[in-house]
Design brief:
Catalyzes the transfer of the enolpyruvyl moiety of phosphoenolpyruvate (PEP) to the 5-hydroxyl of shikimate-3-phosphate (S3P) to produce enolpyruvyl shikimate-3-phosphate and inorganic phosphate. Monomer. Helix content is about 30%, strand content about 25%. It has about 425 residues and is of the alpha/beta class. It folds into two domains: about 200 residues, Enolpyruvate transferase domain (UDP-n-acetylglucosamine1-carboxyvinyl-transferase, Chain, Alpha-beta prism), CATH 3.65.10.10; about 210 residues, Alpha-beta prism (UDP-n-acetylglucosamine1-carboxyvinyl-transferase, Chain), CATH 3.65.10. The strands form six sheets. A four-stranded mixed beta sheet has the order 2-15-17-16, with helices on one face. It has a four-stranded mixed beta sheet with strand order 4-5-3-14, with helices on one face. Strands 6-7-9-8 form a four-stranded mixed beta sheet, covered by helices on one side. The radius of gyration is 21 Å and the shape is globular. The two termini are about 30 Å apart. The protein binds shikimate-3-phosphate and phosphoenolpyruvate. Phosphoenolpyruvate (PEP) binds next to α3.
């Protein structure tokens, strides 16, 4: 795709209502759980974007029928799990698709190759492959050890206990837990210490429960999944995407304006909704209403000192706000940000430096001295979250444009349309 440049015009105080698309994480999971069910499922308000279409297409390779229309997706699994796929299955740069689908594919029979972009080939899959091998799957790395492309030959999962190193990604555990429901006997998935991005594991377990699958926490370091579970096709309504909403919350925060985002509820399953508490700590007012949430920005943002391990995707948004908050903001404990769509610690530091913001890059975080921000051309690093977060800075400072703006299609294809409409009325 050709690189596009998007120039943002500053506005006095942003004001408006934004309908956010369906959650990417919830849509991926709903599609995959529907593929494991018996009979047809109906998924409402799903996100139709590059990554969720990659998941849908991968499932089609396995023999699942996926039919989208305006408001819903119908998913119909094949008679036997799975059909052969002679071609390699390409997953772009979608970490969620890659890690979670390795589990889903291994939960049935077949011989599959999973691959992606050069960047996806730098994003690890070793811990999930190690665990799948212990559950009886044959797997071979076709390139670098521990990374895609990977070939899986499976006859279904046995059962037993597996230990997973989940420090780099919660997705390794989510993959195993979802797949384990189809194993021949019970599977216990345990990890040492704290798993990265922990709220995504709660999301996985809660969504399984909602569609009728059992998965039980064993303390805070493990999940037990009974094997041979079967659920009938289900109907699932996808909640709005909090991560996508964060750019509009940030727009209100930065301009001292007011934005209402919907559909969202205070009991949303996504951990990124907790970013609202970060905004409150920075001085914003957050008001939940029946259909969504209203964020009102303060006259002046306050800096914060926070561990962001639970909400890695919110770090670019926070970093941009921090650039405008006079004082020092510290963002800690997010080493796993280096293996996202881009090395997000490096990318954020480089782009803030272009805007003349003093920033220290730590191995696992950032220290940002907020106050003075200048205009510049920001490079998106093929990372949708860098593009969307830095767009917000352009609402306050003239001369900001985003090169590589098309990358938003990964999670929010209409982002620029919605953003322009909001900023120019
Ligand atoms: O499971 C998910 O839906 C996700 C988990 C997180 O990844 P890690 O667990 O790899 O940090 C997050 O960054 C990603 O955008 C979506
Ligand atoms: C990290 C992300 O996604 P994924 O891991 O699925 O590529 C993201 O959306 O910010």
């Amino acid at each position: 795709m050709a690189k596009t440049v998007e120039t943002i015009q500053p506005v006095e105080r942003i004001r408006g209502r934004v309908r956010v698309p369906g959650s990417k994480s919830v849509t991926h999971r709903a599609l995959m759980l529907a593929a494991l069910a018996r009979g047809e499922s109906e998924i409402l308000d799903a996100l139709r974007a590059e990554d969720t279409e990659l998941t849908a297409r991968a499932l089609e390779h396995l023999g699942v029928t996926v039919a989208w229309d305006d408001r819903r997706v119908l998913v119909h699994p094949p008679a036997s799990r799975w059909e052969p796929s002679p071609e390699a299955i390409h997953l772009g740069n979608s970490g969620t698709s890659m890690r979670l689908l390795l589990g889903i594919a291994a939960a049935g029979k077949g011989d599959f190759v999973f691959d992606g972009t050069p960047r996806l080939r730098e994003r690890p899959v070793g811990p999930v492959i190690d665990a799948l091998r212990r559950l009886g799957v044959r797997a071979a790395y076709l390139g670098r050890e521990g990374y895609p492309p990977v070939q899986l030959q499976s006859d279904g999962l046995t059962g037993g206990s597996v230990w997973v190193d989940a420090r780099e990604s919660s997705q390794f555990v989510s993959a195993l837990v979802m797949a384990a429901s189809a194993a021949r006997s019970d599977v216990e998935v345990c990890w040492e210490g704290k798993a990265a991005s922990l709220p995504y594991l709660h999301l996985t377990v809660e969504m399984m429960r909602r569609v009728g699958l059992r998965a039980d926490w064993i303390g805070s370091n493990g999940i037990m999944v009974p094997g041979r579970q079967e659920v009938r096709g289900f109907r699932y309504r996808v909640e709005g995407d909090c991560s996508s909403a964060s750019y509009f919350w940030a727009a209100a925060a930065l301009t001292g304006g007011e934005v209402f985002t919907y559909p969202l509820t205070a009991d949303a399953l996504q951990g990124d909704c907790r970013f609202l508490a970060v905004l409150e700590a920075m001085g914003c007012t957050v008001v939940w209403e029946e259909e969504g949430v209203r964020v009102v920005g303060p006259e002046r943002l306050r800096p914060v000192d926070l561990g962001m391990n639970d909400m890695p995707d919110m770090v670019p948004t926070l970093a941009v706000l921090a650039a405008f908050a006079p004082g020092t903001t510290r963002i800690r404990n997010v080493a796993h940000l280096r293996i996202k769509e881009s090395d997000r610690i490096r990318a954020v530091a480089e782009e803030l430096a272009k805007l003349a913001v003093p920033v220290d890059e730590l191995p696992d975080g950032l220290v940002i001295s907020g106050g003075g921000v200048k205009g510049a051309v920001v490079e998106a690093h093929d990372d949708h979250r860098i593009a969307m977060a830095f767009a917000v800075a352009g609402l306050k400072v003239p001369g900001i444009s985003i090169a590589g703006a098309e990358t938003v299609s990964k999670s929010f294809p209409k982002f620029w349309e919605v953003f322009r409409k909001l900023s120019h009325g």
